Amino acid sequence: MKKGGLTMTRQGLFAAGVVASALLAGGACAQELRFTVWTGNDAHLAMLNGIAEGFRESHPDVTVRFETIPAGDYTQKLTFQIAGGNPPDLGWMFEDSIPAFIAAGVVEDIGPALRETEGYDLDDFSGPAMDLWSDGDAVYGIPFSTSPFMVFYNKEMFEAAGLKDPLAMAEAGEWTMEAFRDAALKLTEANDAWGFEFKDGEGYDSRIMHAIMPPIRAYGGHAWQDGECGFDDPEAVEAVTMLHGMIFEDQSIVPPGEQGDFFSGSAAMTVNQISRASKMPEAGFEWGIAPLPTGPAGAAPIIGQAGISVFAQGDKKELATEFAAFMTNAENVAVMAQFFPPARASVLDSDAFIDANELIPAEQMAYVSDAIKQGSVLPSHENAPKILAAMKPRFDALFRADADVPATLAAVCAAIQDEL
Amino acid sequence: MALSQPQLATVKRICWMLSLVVVAIPFLFPFLWMISSGFKGPTEIFGEPSLIPRTWRWQNFVEVFEYQPFARQYFNSIYIACAVTVLTLLLSSLAGYALARMRFAGAALLMLFLMSALMVPEEVTIVPNFFLMKWLGVMDTHVPLILLPVFGPHGVMATFLMRQYFVALPKELEDAGKMDGLSRAGIWWKIALPMSRPALAAVAIITFLFSWNLFLEPLVFISSLENFTLPLALSNFTDPYGAPLWHLQLAATSLAVVPILIVYLIAQRQIIESFAMSGVKG
Amino acid sequence: MASLNEPGTTVRAPRAPWLTLKRRETIEGWLFVSPTLIGFLIFFLGPLIAVVFYSLSEWNLLSQDTIFVGLANYEDALTQNPDFWQVIRNSVIFAAGLVPMNMALALALAMALARPFRGVVFFRTIFFAPVVTSAVAWAIVWKFLLQGDAGAVNQMLATVGIDGPNWLREPNWAMAAVIVTRVLKMVGLNMILYIAALQSIPRDYEEAARLEGASEWQIFRMVIWPLLAPTTLIIMVITTIGSFKVFDHIYLMTGGGPENGTLVLAFYIYQQAFEFFEIGYASALAMIMFVIVLALTVVQLILRQKGST
């Protein structure tokens, strides 16, 4: 009932906020910033509200209202708000939607303001991490979460299958794609569970890229580059053929339309970000995290990013920009690091970060830190919605037992080439 | 062994009932399975199928309200449906009465004009309505969800339904009202409306359900959780990363569907007749 | 009449009244319909006309950049975009599957339940229950029932030794699944329309035919079916239009997939407008949808005219 208690507090806070803002609305200087987020997690919201509270020290009249929009509909609803003339002042942005928003001119360039902010140190954010969010000197967002994809594994199931611990394999340099495939098969045979589950079980729907990009990159392939599709290159074909084999020959990956949730113990491994470790205490089994398996092209860590942007149509842009700067200063990035791995080099290197997540031991966090530094983000594009929609039906065809992998991937390329 | 005539009739009857029962299964089963699964935990829900949950997880129904402001969303749906119903009753009976009883210039043309709306799907006008609502400054409010059903094809349908009913009413009482010095509005309000209770009830029932079940409009016009209506809220039980939370979704769906079903069971004759009336209108 | 008797009006009574009864009736009539009419013009007809203009532009929902492109959107849909014809094909398959199945089942159920017997109310109530249930709830529950091997439908098929398909993951099965579940949702409505029609047929007709030695099938074919013709036409029009409007059912059950196998016109319009921000192209699609529905309705009404003369 702990959860219920917290929720009550949250609603209480919310109610108090409503009353407060109603009272303050009469005052001349009282201002409210509306900030859209996709988390409904109580701990996340408490942390965000704490940061907003800190902002009041310098801006006593400003309240920040965090508005939760569910992740699945987030970009869609945000689009409705912006196009409907009802934009939030600031909001979280997904990596796959930011290019389209930049191209449409709906996110504000906050670069100049950040450079003028005393003690902000924009250069502390690593170049690769800022790549997606900036264009020359213009800055359209600040990544608050730069989180690598890690393999979560069920230790008990590995023991039952008589397999070496993946983390140990990684240390010995044996954690390769072959070892991964072999482990998944043995885990499936030894346990009453699937060997591997795609991220959140959504590898065939909303998380296709999360499902296919780790092996494709490990094999040395890419999705697209400079307007050319890479899915039909031999490296990508080899990688996807392996995945296809795992799903339909080995039957070690949860297949399309089936349920096999890692967190409830019906899959032995999955891929996810460390923020998901918050789900582990309820899981009730021994677990660990390991890096993504390496391939012929070596290690290819993949990071997912999310950023904070100020919306160009807002009527309190200056204030919103000040808050964005406050939220992403070194001090608050360190606070957020407990959930969201930072892109600030100064925070990333600190012991505080390695120890920040109480659920994950330091030796595992070291891999997280490495992955952030070396990793690259998932492919993005300003036409991403159309590209993903064009890819989807072709990938539906791919994830069938009798699919011809090279031909299907060629069809994927044919379908998206125009949008690239 | 030969069967006697009555025996044969009994066998026939039993076969007849059995086949009806078989056909009824896909209609009834989803409701039973929905309610039963609403009580199951996330692991049991896809385990060995069983209509009776092995462990009754009442907590689902608590978590439904914690996951999003479900009570608020429930209330939104109720009050919007009531507002739409009252407005539709008022406007459709007013216009329907005029079209049925008053011989005014242009009435026939107007009928034809309004009738054309019945052929136009909402999807055709949703995009311009999006910009209209933006211009009116009512995005992410319930105003579009009230105005569009009242004035869209559904409102026109209600108007025709009322008109059909008024046409068939005997005129004598109204004439008597005229003698007593009642104005047109007075006749409408004091004489025609009380006589048309069945039609009003039919319009009310159909309109309430129409608003209650609306999905495309809330999807497009509503973006904050507190303003969601039930259908939108039901489609929203996914974990923060987009995977469906079936146990909560089904618990919430049960909460949304069961009260309506209970009302339906109590008033099934009235409700079915209402729909029959609305269908015959064309 | 009341206002005419007020003192102010009676004073000027000798002058020929401008407000003749006829004029008065017209003014009152328009006053009565004006709320409905004004709302209708603003929220329905205006938008309908606006779509025509929208469809001639290239308009990005997010950036609000607009340029006039003439008929390019129509050209794009009809000649360039391979998805469009697949969408039309899907919509036609959906309608062609749904309408006959719905009507046949509705008629069969109505024939079974038109005459009173013990339990008739029970069965009518069950068959009609999905009609009052929200389409969203119905779609959610069926999506749940039709999950792969773990779904209840396949679990049940497995007990009788059938290895059910992965319903919502195979294009053809998914189309079949959305059609059948939609029929289950809506058939009750047509059923009661048929029941009402059947109950209005005088029993003597049937009795007379029976006395002449007609078989049950002959009675149906020669007596009942012709008398049901007007109802059948109405139901056909309503059901056909309804099948082109289906959005929520598809949105929730399959999202247009797999392999675009259930991507129908209503959903495609939504997707283009609000997911890809293509307001102009979506409006052109909306116009096409309008024309299709209009054409279907007119054709069916002509058939009806012919049938009745």
TrEMBL record, chain C:
One Pfam family named in its UniProt record: BPD_transp_1
Domain spans labelled ABC transmembrane type-1: 88-300
Subcellular location as annotated: Cell membrane
Keyword annotations: Cell membrane, Membrane, Transmembrane, Transmembrane helix, Transport
GO cellular component entries: plasma membrane
Protein topology in the membrane: Multi-pass membrane protein
GO terms, biological process: transmembrane transport
Keyword Protein biosynthesis belongs to the record: no
TM segment ranges: 30-56, 92-114, 121-141, 173-198, 219-244, 282-303
Main location: membrane
Position of the signal peptide: none
Similarity comment: family membership: Belongs to the binding-protein-dependent transport system permease family.
Protein name per the record: Sugar ABC transporter permease
Organism: Mesobaculum littorinae
